[in-house]
Amino acid sequence: MKFSTKLGLWFFFCILIIETGSMLFLHQNVVHSLVDNEMKSLLARGDSHRDVLEETFTDNTLQHIVLMESKTDTEVVVTDTSGRVINSSIAINNEIKSIIAPISNNNQIIETDWESQPYIATASPFSSNSGESGTVFMLKSTSQMKGLITDLNHHFGIAVIIILFFLVITNLVLVKLLTKPLVSMKEATKKINEGDFTVTLPVISKDEIGELANSIQTLASNLNYLQQERKEFLASISHELRTPLTYIRGYADIGQKPHLLDTQRMEYLKIIHEESIRVSTLLEDLFELAKMDQNSFSIVKEKIKLGEFLQLIFEKARPVFSNSGIDLQFYIKKECYVNIDPLRFEQVVQNILDNALKYSDGGTTTIKLSKQDNTCELTISDEGKGIPEDQIPYIFDRLFRVEKSRSRLTGGVGLGLSIVKEIVDAHEGELKVSSKIGVGTTVSILLKETQNK
Known about the structure:
This protein is of the alpha+beta class.
């Protein structure tokens, strides 16, 4: 059974139960109020006749009362204290006799069973100023009430039919409106399952259905992005592997020529060696990223005095920068302690310094450690070529390179910063990059300080 059918039936039966209960409750209350008003009206009429008889008890008064009731839909019977009928607007039969039995001195309703009895009745005892006593009985045929309630039931039946009609129409319209976006989402997920991630879902509401549509749209967009990224990734990997392998194969073929000079052969072997290292480095980086994706790489944190840790890295890197004509400087504004994996975090710093070395032509590269509140900030700034502002958001994407030529002379393959980002995230740190063409690039890493205890 379809969800729309289930929803429609559920909604229909819920409203039907509510409407049925409401109609039954209303019907019972209307009938009860109607009967109650009739009883009170009948009793009030009897009390009015009683008051007249108590003031003036004469044959003319009795005749007048009987005459009045003979012109209405009610009947009157006046009896004395022994139950003998003094006057009446109706012929006395056994049914009437069973009703006008002697009662106490209080006015009261003596017959309320309008469903099975022929009359409802009230009794109003009187005691006149001239000494006569008795009871004024008021009777009303229940056939009239039954007819009135039958009409009422008829009107209620028509109302129920009209309500059910509009309930069905409203149910169909509401179910269609509610399930229409769900049907659209079903079609969208079907396309996603078939590999089509270009689906679009309009978010026309801010309720749970709108949130679901927005989530599916976001999922489709992310999958489409990942699909495009995978294609670009495979194309980039193919290019990165093809280039060094072409060099290795080409120079290996040349190196096998018998009449080649030893100096030339050694030069070609050196190129083959460099390209093999390049391939090995690429594969190691890919293997590292694969482990990160699978959460299988290990992070072993320990409390480190960050200034001393960076000082060691600075000492190792300074000769390399010096040989390239770059002045590497290190400043500690304020020492702080952090929980990090020393090996992994050294890889982060070395990758950033490696980029500064590759894309700087002289100038100064600065390592700076500072602290604000409970946050340690490591900043590495260079005076290199800089990065275009529109490309900064993508520099942590895998195989992304600002230099599109992918020349052998312009550095790595675009995996270093991806690894940096993954490791910093694993340390629950924050990575920021700012850059300006021709001025340089600044990379900042924010880490939460650990109490020195």
